[in-house]
Design goal:
- There is one protein chain.
- By secondary structure, the protein is of the alpha/beta class.
- The protein is 42% helix and 17% strand.
- Helix 14 runs antiparallel to helix 21, helix 18 packs antiparallel against helix 20 and helix 24 runs antiparallel to helix 29.
- Strand 9 and strand 10 form a beta hairpin.
- It has 33 helices and 28 strands.
- The radius of gyration is 36 Å and the shape is elongated.
- Bound molecules: adenosine-5'-diphosphate.
- Adenosine-5'-diphosphate binds next to helix 22.
Length: 954
């Protein structure tokens, strides 16, 4: 149902617009031709197709020719892909297709402007409520262009000027309500050259801009790590490199891709744009060579910012060059499986590693810690540099507590400072900035004499900024109002003229109180009051019953139900003086505020550098606090390629309410003798928990954090891969098993000998033997070809056989105590494999009815008897996959693809019996070939050759 129309109020100043409209209400259409924002909003395609049809962009047919609508069309042509918020007095109006889209998306009433040939849909939102609407549209993937009145309607003769002042997009939004205070909001821009790709990402709410260059194939991974809200790509890329495009779309998930014309990445012009922004003659000072692919990416990004913000973004002041290989690589699947910053179910923060580690006290610290979790380091020295700082703060609880209590008083310096540059700062923000900066000298005191190198370094990076704090403190009152044009912002004593004007205005109020008292005595009229309205200013109000006593000097102005209103020359004269003084004071205060803001713009760089150091202190103190609270230890870090964890624990599960007492476990992996652990055990035994805990401990160690263990030695890894079998991804429209295999392919193709590979129940997405065969082959490949340290959890107990065949592969299992017909999970990892899956026991625990359990037991006995031959056959085969596929192939008909056979063979109530028969009746390849021979038509030589061939196959 369409909600009721908003109260439509026309501002008086609109009357100066010759064509203020008459609106006629029409009902919002139930459906619209426009289904929503396109993921790819290219200038060619348009995001909203506003004014489509007769009023289509570019075309002029049917465009109303009033001066105001000409302004509208000019703005629309300037930003054809954006929904245009067109300011008319106290409302933003939308016209044409924009109105239809907004009405549908936000449930706003659709009206109609004009009648006849000029009729067009129209919808509006009040200016004071516009921000919420704008944010909702941007969240839904739309771009919104804001077209403001640029001249004062009171002062303009005829039509007021209008122009677009800003275009708001997902990657450039800076409104506090739209942003998560503890997560960065990145706009990314990638330029793909002949051999390399340049990548830039900027958070406009803080002004931090990063750049890196990488191999083209690594671009999807890099973008996935950065997880931007919006990405700028050349519109030619999809056609030039379709495979890369598909990978990029996959890596970006829900981020919006904004396609820009290829010429917007032209190197020379982009180099100029970048140098203009950073006020430099060459970008080499940032470590960027002229021929680097970063150059076009930076320029294209800067031009987009200028185009959307309509102003130079002064707070984007430098390029932070990120060297490839500095960070441990975590792809999207790994981040998801390990639940680093978001849970897999419900995308929540609670229950993630970040949530468990984050006890930061500032929003900046929260954002930086999130970056540390997503970008662990992979070089020994930088890791130890951080870790030693954490260690010192663990050892010095008093210093840590002091630092943390000072940090609690520090607001979001980065986002407050960014508001100064974008001109959206108010007096309250500046007061908060001043009060926050006042904490910096105290932080410094606690950092100066520390023994770990990083803390004194941070002390040096913290600028006490006392000049800024004092300037704000002496200029502004402690609790200013939200608006900056209504006065009450500047401290008294700061400006002599302002004090004088305030005195007059203040005296005026005293005068008026006295005047009211005197007049009521003079006129013998106790009910007389002074009031004010915007039409005729101050007046005297006399109750109706006492008007006969009113003196002749009173001039009647208005009659209301209960009283008459008068003015007197004396009152008017004083009013002029008071009002003038008030107006002058307000203007003066506004000027003083702007002066302060401009002055602070010069300090933006110093404030941002300090903000980064504050955030780093906060992260170190947070990691120290978490370590102290949870008995974490400092891991030894080296380049050995070994991994030794004693009594390791899962950092999230050990603290979850559901876990009474967590059972710690050891881990020992190296690149040679123990490179691949095969972990078998029943479902629910704790396999996933164990292998994830190892990945998390490695990741935490490489962040510089302490780890949940009694001791740990971590040989650095370059990538962590995790993959859990058969997680559905219906939202992406891909079959479970396909997703699983795509990710396995990614691991097999990209893992190196220095990687850590964590595979959980791989192969579970297909039928038993198919999955077993794949799991087998994958273990062989990871072990033989990749050589990565690997943990492979599986319920295929048949795989334990591999430990005997492959050097470096060893079996682990989860101890289970069997008692009568019950099993108890001990969650203890022990050496050696297991030979049972206990699935039926788990089903009983889950409440499956007894008759189903006993039938399952009977079926299991049958299957185990029938397929006993299978594992030895796989083990003895040179190509287990081929053998297992034979075992699975349908009795007749063409060979099916793995995915097809997966769906055919997956046990379902209706096909299970046939499946059992199928396994039992399945002849081997040799048998089938033998059956196909026709001895009657063979020569002795052919028969001999056939026997040789068959023997070879055996
Ligand atoms: P699996 O992968 O073998 O099916 P999970 O790792 O999912 O098992 O663990 C099953 C349950 O056991 C989880 O609820 C988890 O909280 C609990 N659990 C796992 N490992 C431990 C442990 N070491 N100590 C205590 N509880 C554990």
């Amino acid at each position: 149902m369409t909600p009721p129309p908003p109260p439509r109020r026309r501002a008086p100043n609109l009357s100066s617009d010759a064509d203020t409209d008459s609106t006629a209400k029409v009902s919002a259409p139930a459906t619209s031709p426009q289904s929503g924002p396109s993921k790819t909003a290219s200038p060619e395609k348009g995001a909203t197709e506003p004014g489509a049809g007769a009023k289509g962009k570019g075309g002029t047919a049917g465009r109303a020719k009033t001066p105001m609508m000409e302004q509208f069309w000019r703005a629309k042509d300037e930003q054809p892909d954006a929904i245009l918020f067109f300011r008319m007095g106290d409302f933003y109006e939308m016209f044409g297709e924009d109105a239809v889209v907004v009405s549908r998306e936000l449930g706003i009433t659709l009206t109609q402007r004009d009648k006849g040939p000029n009729a067009m849909p129209m919808a509006g939102v009040p200016v004071r409520a516009a921000e919420g609407h704008l944010l909702r549209l941007v969240r839904k993937g739309f771009r919104v262009a804001i077209c403001e009145q640029l001249t004062d309607p009171k002062a303009s003769k005829g039509i007021v000027e209008r122009g677009i002042v800003r275009v708001v997009t997902a990657g450039t939004i800076t409104e506090e309500d739209a942003l998560d205070a503890r997560a960065s909001n990145y706009l990314a821009c990638a330029s793909v050259g002949a051999k390399r790709a340049g990548l830039v990402w900027v958070d406009l709410s803080t002004g931090r801009l990063h750049a890196s260059e990488c191999e083209i194939a690594k671009l999807p991974d890099e973008l996935s790590r950065i997880a931007p809200a919006e990405v700028l790509l050349s519109s030619g890329l999809a056609a030039e490199r379709p495979e890369l495009w598909v990978e990029l779309e996959r890596a970006l998930g829900n981020a919006g891709i904004t396609e820009r014309e290829p010429w917007r990445f032209e190197r020379e012009a982009m180099a100029r744009a970048a140098k203009r922004q950073f006020k430099v003659k060459t970008l080499e000072g940032f470590g960027i060579e002229d021929k680097s692919e970063i150059v076009p990416a930076v320029g294209a990004c800067i031009e987009y910012l200028e185009e959307t913000q309509k102003t130079a973004c002064e707070h984007v002041r430098r390029i932070e060059r990120v060297e490839p290989g500095r960070f441990l690589v975590l792809d999207r699947a790994t981040r998801g499986c390990l639940e680093l910053v978001e849970t897999q179910r419900g995308a929540r923060r609670e229950g993630t590693l970040l949530d468990g580690l984050d006890t930061t006290r500032t929003a900046m610290g929260g954002r930086l810690l999130r970056e540390w979790v997503l970008e662990p380091l992979c070089e020994v020295d930088p890791i130890l540099h951080r870790q030693r700082g954490v260690a010192e703060l663990v050892e010095q609880p008093f210093v840590r507590e002091e630092l943390r209590s000072i940090l609690s008083e520090v607001r979001d310096l980065e986002r407050l400072t960014a508001k100064i540059s974008t001109g959206r700062v108010n007096a309250r923000d500046l007061v908060a900035l001043g009060q926050s900066l006042a904490q910096v000298p105290m932080l410094k005191q606690h950092l100066a004499d520390r023994y770990s190198a990083i803390l004194p370094e941070l002390d040096a990076q913290l600028d006490p900024l006392t000049d800024v704090t004092e300037r704000i403190g002496t200029t502004l009152v402690d609790e200013p109002p939200l608006t900056i044009k209504e006065g009450g912002v500047v401290r008294s004593g700061f400006h002599t003229e302002l004090d004088e004007l305030r005195q007059i205005a203040g005296d005026g109020k005293t005068w008026m109180a006295k005047f009211q008292a005197d007049e009521s005595v003079r006129a013998g009229n106790p009910g007389l009051k002074i009031g004010f309205n915007s039409v005729f200013g101050y007046f005297l109000e006399v109750p109706r019953g006492q008007v006969d006593k009113v003196p002749d000097t009173y001039i009647r102005k208005q009659t209301i139900k209960t009283a008459e209103r008068y003015i007197t020359p004396e009152l008017k004269e004083f009013e002029q003086k008071v009002l003038k003084a008030e107006d002058l004071a307000k203007d003066l205060e506004y000027g003083i505020f702007n002066e302060l803001r401009d002055e602070l713009s010069d300090a933006v760089g110093r404030i941002l550098d300090t903000a980064r150091a504050v955030a780093t202190v906060d992260c170190l103190a947070s990691l120290a606090e978490t370590a102290a609270q949870n008995r974490y230890v400092a891991p030894a870090i080296d380049d050995s390629g070994e991994l030794e964890i004693l009594e390791g624990r899962h950092p999230v599960i050990e603290r979850s309410a559901a876990c009474d007492s967590f059972v710690p476990n050891d881990t020992r992996l190296d690149g040679e003798q123990r490179s691949l652990a095969l972990l078998t055990g029943p479902n629910m035994a704790g396999k996933s928990t164990y292998i994830r805990q190892i990945a998390l401990i490695v990741l935490m160690a490489q962040m510089g954090s302490f780890v949940p263990a009694d001791s740990a030695r971590i040989g650095i890894t370059d990538r962590i891969f995790t993959r859990v079998g058969s997680g559905d991804d219906i939202s992406r429209g891909e079959s479970t098993f396909m997703v699983e295999m795509v990710e396995i392919a990614n691991i097999l193709n990209n893992a190196t000998a220095r990687s850590l590979v964590v595979l959980d129940e791989v192969g579970r997405g297909t039928s038993t033997f198919d999955g077993l065969a794949l799991a087998w082959a994958i273990v062989e490949h990871v072990h033989g070809q990749v050589g990565a340290r690997t943990l492979f959890a599986t319920h295929y107990h048949q795989l334990t056989e591999l430990a005997e065949r492959l050097k470096g592969v060893h079996n682990l299992s989860v101890a289970v105590r069997e008692w009568e017909d019950e099993i108890v999970f001990l969650h203890k990892i022990v050496e050696g494999g297991t030979d049972r899956s206990y699935g039926i026991h788990v089903a009983r625990l889950a409440g499956v009815p007894p008759e189903v359990l006993s039938r399952a037991k009977a079926v299991l006995a049958e299957i185990e008897g029938e397929s006993e031959h299978l594992a030895p056959r796989i083990a003895g085969s040179a190509s287990p996959v081929a053998e297992a596929q034979i075992a699975e192939a349908p009795v007749s008909g063409p060979a099916s693809t793995p995915a097809e056979s997966a769906s055919e063979a997956r046990p379902t109530p209706s096909n299970e019996p046939q499946q059992l028969a199928l396994f039992a009746a399945e002849p081997s390849r040799v048998e089938r070939e033998l059956a196909a021979l026709d001895p009657d038509s063979m020569t002795p030589m052919e028969a001999l050759l056939a026997i040789q061939r068959l023997k070879a196959q055996l």
